[in-house]
Design brief:
It contains five helices and eleven strands. The chain is of the alpha+beta class and 232 residues long.
């Protein structure tokens, strides 16, 4: 082996060893100046307390969270906020006898879910706004049309006394039972972080769902930095 060939092999080895660490450095250190955190939606009252940053007192903020709830997935398992501890999730809203839009909503969730099947951090929720018709058994049958409906993708039901306040006061959107099987319900997807805070609203469109997919990754990076969890 001549000297030139040896030098080339050494250089290649150095690149292989250094490049992953350099990319990690760019993401975790330099990335702080390149990636902007996602906004936090909802009211933000001041807590009346302070914390110090570089000697300066900064008022503490109380961020809006979803609040408590108790629902049931398509397998009859109980789902509460604790189910999503240390996880982020995307929520959509539907009812099984909805003529068109609900299928589009769950179709987009299906495509997103496929991207994160192996992720331990990203989960998905489809919440029925018609729990009187959409029992656990009905949701189980409905979910079977999708390739990976669980355990990372939950179709949820419960009772209107829980679901409607959760949508209105938790997700900060509206839902109305107009009677005869018709509903006014949220036509957006919602991104929620591990603290149960709303981090984004997205229209049911290719453009916004693509943005949602990108912002799931941004939020995963945020969670990774704060908890040192794997990205995927």
């Amino acid at each position: 082996m001549n000297k030139t060939s040896l030098i080339k092999k050494i250089l290649i080895l150095v690149v292989i060893l250094i490049l992953p660490g350099f990319l990690y450095y760019l993401l975790t250190v330099k990335g702080e100046n390149r990636y902007h955190p996602l906004p936090i939606f909802g009211p933000k009252p001041l807590a009346g307390t302070f914390h110090k940053v570089k000697g300066k007192e900064i008022p503490d903020t109380i961020f809006h969270t979803l609040g408590d709830f108790r629902l049931y997935d398509q397998h009859g398992r109980t789902v509460t906020p604790k189910t999503f501890d240390n996880k982020i999730f995307v929520a959509g809203f539907f009812y099984t006898h909805c003529p068109t839009l609900c299928n589009t909503i769950n179709g987009y969730i299906d495509s997103l879910n496929r991207n994160y099947v192996k992720s331990e951090l990203a989960y998905f929720v489809s919440l029925s706004v018609d729990p009187q018709r959409d029992s656990v058994k009905v949701l189980d049958g409905y979910s079977r049309q999708f390739e990976h409906p669980g355990p990372k993708w939950s179709f949820l039901t419960g009772d209107t006394a829980t679901i409607y306040p959760l949508i209105r006061k938790g997700f900060l959107m509206n839902v109305v039972d107009e009677g005869k099987g018709d509903f006014i319900y949220p036509d957006k997807l919602v991104l929620v972080d591990s603290h149960k805070r709303i981090r984004g609203y997205y229209d049911i469109s290719i453009k916004d769902v693509t943005r949602l997919n990108d912002e799931i990754k941004v939020l995963m990076l945020e969670e990774y930095r704060s908890k040192e969890k794997p990205l995927y």
